[in-house]
Amino acid sequence: MINNQRKKEIIEYLSDTDYRTLKDIADKFAISMNTARRDINELAEENLVKKFYGGVSLARKKDSTFQSRIASHIEEKQRIAKYAAALVNDNDLLYIDSGSTTSLLTDYLHRDFHLTIVTNNIYVITKVIEVVNWDLIVVGSRLKHSSCSLINVYDWDYLNSLNVNKAFLATTGLTIQGGATNPDNAETIIKTSMMKRSQENFLLTDSSKFDRTSLRTFANIEDFDKIITSGSVPKHFVEYCAADSTQLIIA
After folding, report:
1. Percent of the chain at pLDDT exceeding 70
2. 164 inside domain
C-alpha cells in the first residue's frame, strides 16, 4: 500500500501543474517506475488522480471558471496587460490568445486606435465589439468553457493566410527545458499557427506559471521576442533569458 506521507506529497506535486509523467514522479520521490505506477494506480482507485498514457494529472471535480482564473494573481496580470498594451501602435494587426492574462489586454488598449484583432477568446470578443475602431476576426468554432476559448478551426487555409504584427500568447506553464505548454491539443495548434503568422511574439504570464508544465509544448523560450511577467521570477529564468535573445520584462 502506498505510504500515506508520499500520497500527500504526490497530490501536492500534481497540484502545481496539469500533467506529470511517471518518470517525473519516480525521479521526484526516488522510487522505481513500478512503484510509481503502483502508487498512481492506488490514487486513481480513490479518484484522486486521473491517468493518461504514460502520465497522470490531479483529478479535479470541476474546472475553475474563467472569471476565477482571472481573479487569481489579478494585480500581477493587470500590470502585465498594461505593459503589453503600451507595445501596441495605431493600425496594428494583433492576435490576442485565450488566457486569463492576455484577455485583460483589451482593457488597456487605446480606444481611439484603429486595430484589427484576431482572437479565439469569448471574453476578448465581448470587449472588442464595444469599440467601433477595432475590427474583429474570430478563429475557432467550438467553445471550451473552462478557458472561454473557441477551438476546432475548420478553415485552416484561412487561418494560415492571416498576417499580424504582434501576437500576445498565454501559457499554462513555462519551463526552460519544456518551453511554453498547454494541455489542450486544439488550443496548442492555434497558438503555434498564429505565432508563425506574426512578426513579433510576446508571452504574457504571471509568476505562478514558472517551473510548471503541461502536456504539450507550443513554443520554446527563444521563440518569443519578449516574455512579460510580474512578481518574483526564479533566478535560473533570469539567467537563461539574459544569455538568450529573449527579453524578460518584469512589469
Report:
1. 95
2. yes
List the grid coordinates of 200: 513579433
Q: Minimal CA–CA distance to 48: which of 61, 58, 37?
A: 58
pLDDT surpasses 80 at 69: no
pTM of the model: 0.78
Is residue 44 located within the same domain as residue 84?
no
Same domain, 29 and 119: no
The residues, any chain, with a CB within 8 Å of residue 46's CB and separated by 6 or more, are none
The secondary structure of residue 71, as a DSSP letter, is H
How confident is residue 102, by pLDDT bands cut at 50, 70 and 90?
very high
Query: Could you say which of 14, 29, 58 is where a domain stops?
Result: 58
User: Would residue 63 count as lying in a domain?
Assistant: no
99-113, 136-150, 196-210, 216-230: the lowest-pLDDT one: 136-150
Please write the tens of the pLDDT for every residue from 183-224: 888 899 999 999 999 999 999 999 989 998 888 999 999 999
Domain that holds residue 199: 68-250
Helix 4-15, helix 33-45: angle, nearest 10:
80
Q: What is the tally of structural domains in the chain?
A: 2
131 plus 162 within the same structural domain: yes
- Which cell numbers hold the place of 233? 521570477
Task: State phi, psi for 165 to the nearest 5 degrees.
Answer: -75, -40
For residues 46 and 81, state if they share a domain: no
d(CA 141, CA 72): 27
